[in-house]
Amino acid sequence: MSKEQVNRLKLIWAQERLTATWLQERTGIDVGRWRNVRSGNVEIRGNEIEEIAKLFPEYAYWLVTGLEIPEAGQISPMTKKER
User: Fold this and answer.
1) Which is the most buried residue in 15, 32, 67, 72, by most CB within 10 A?
2) Does residue 79 contact residue 70 with C-beta atoms inside 8 Å?
3) Mean pLDDT of the region 40-51
């Protein structure tokens, strides 16, 4: 997966005020793994993108592509912040 997706994850992380512990509790993915993804030490995996998309379905399309479809409810954290 791409660095752009990690950067988009960081924006979600900030907008939603996530913690690695909160993500571990909801996804079963280790807290250390989430910290490494966020810091850029490792690449984000497909299953991690899927888990974020389950938690925040409104960001799913944007997380993967960087594009929004507001009429379909697919937005970015920046759009959510503006609302």
Assistant:
1) 15
2) yes
3) 93
